[in-house]
Diacylglycerol O-acyltransferase
Amino acid sequence: MADRLSALDASFLYVEEPSMPMHVGSVAILRRPGSGFDYARVLALVSRRLSYLPRYRQYVEFVPGHLARPVWVDDADFDVSYHVRRSALPAPGSDAQLFELVARLLARPLDRDRPLWELYVVEGLEGDRVALVTKTHQSLVDGTATVDLGQLILDAEPTGWDDVGDEAPWPEWTPSSRPGRARLLLDAVTDSLRRPAELVDNVRSAARDLTSTAERMLDTAGDMATTVRSLARPAPRNPLNARVSGGRVFAGVSADLAELRGIRDRYGGTINDVVFAVVTGALRHWLLARGRSLEQTETVRALAPLAVRAPDDVGFSTVGLLDNRVDPCLVDLPVGEPHPVLRFQHIAHAMAQHVRVRRSVAARAMVRMSGFAPATMYSLAARAASSLSGRLFNVVVANSPGPQRRLFAGEAPLERIYPVLPLSRDQALAVGVTSYDGGVYFGLNGDRKALSDVTVLAGAVTEAIEELKGTNW
């Protein structure tokens, strides 16, 4: 029987447009070790570990006439060197130059005739550093059967290149034969007879009613859309709601986790509350820098995906977490409030209400779970964002805790990692946040036309942190 995409996974392909690629990404910056770190070694490391991710050697085959959802098919011509690519900045390359390159790389849709992922090895960074930029389609990473590639190439201990070659034997990969048109149609008819309602939706998608079909898939894929039915009030309109173009801008901001903990200890709440207070302050400063007049009651509505446990899950077992979901929570960020402490209190109160209503997964438990690493969490967060109408929120803000120990790719230590979330239709900004080894890293992905001043917003993140640090009761 065909290995068919789920309704949710297929919907990401149906709604994708050239100006709205549906992939998540990350920008990992590593220190080059004395033993060296180059493209050939990264290629060998990825090649060795692809056997753990069979989906990364499969592409999507669409069924003629859209009579059924697409299927996963082994790529008989799989070429790992096509997916692991080499790039470089004019040495010594700055972070600003890296972020400009990242924006251009992530703006390009993935090739649908090949497995839906890419990894770029970017050399030439100042300070003898190397960047790994990943792109993975949302239909590929589901957090259960398939996780993000970065989770396999990063280790808790340095791995010498000789040790990489001595890992588990490199299994011989024999791709399955490609199904012909007749087989695809036969399987589609068989599946449709079992599920006649799906046949109607699939035919509608063939008639180019892709958006409504995908929304129906998303609405019936799980419990995520319950938030839609409980909210009737649309989000306030502001410059963040702009029709996205094909261009992107990106900026990364680093912060000290100890400083954010100090803010939490001072005012109460959680680190997540601090993160959202920082984002709120940054958006306020950015709007004011644009000359916008803010009423004290003005808000920006954020979609804040929250990892939750199933009702019958009483513990934090690995299986329990992976079988759970990410719910979309809508939080009104009080950008009109001039006092940073009052902004923080508003956010802490709103977040506490969401946690009480949902069985939220504790941050410490998420960090412990293999397969629920930040990169995978961001793909699940993007899925949650896709389950809601764009009229209900202005910006996506996803915060996922990462490990507080040093990780390595081979022998190269990971210094920083910035998440990159995709943009939804009519949302010009997506903010990904993660903590790692004592740092907190904000990834700001924006539309090039609507958010050309992303560096102003990046500077406002730092300003918002300083504002919270320096405020007394």
User: Anything to note?
Assistant: Residues 226-469 form a domain with the Chloramphenicol Acetyltransferase fold (CATH 3.30.559.30). The radius of gyration is 22 Å. Residues 205-232, 309-324, 360-372 have pLDDT under 50 and may be disordered. The CA atoms of residues 341 and 472 lie 8 Å apart.
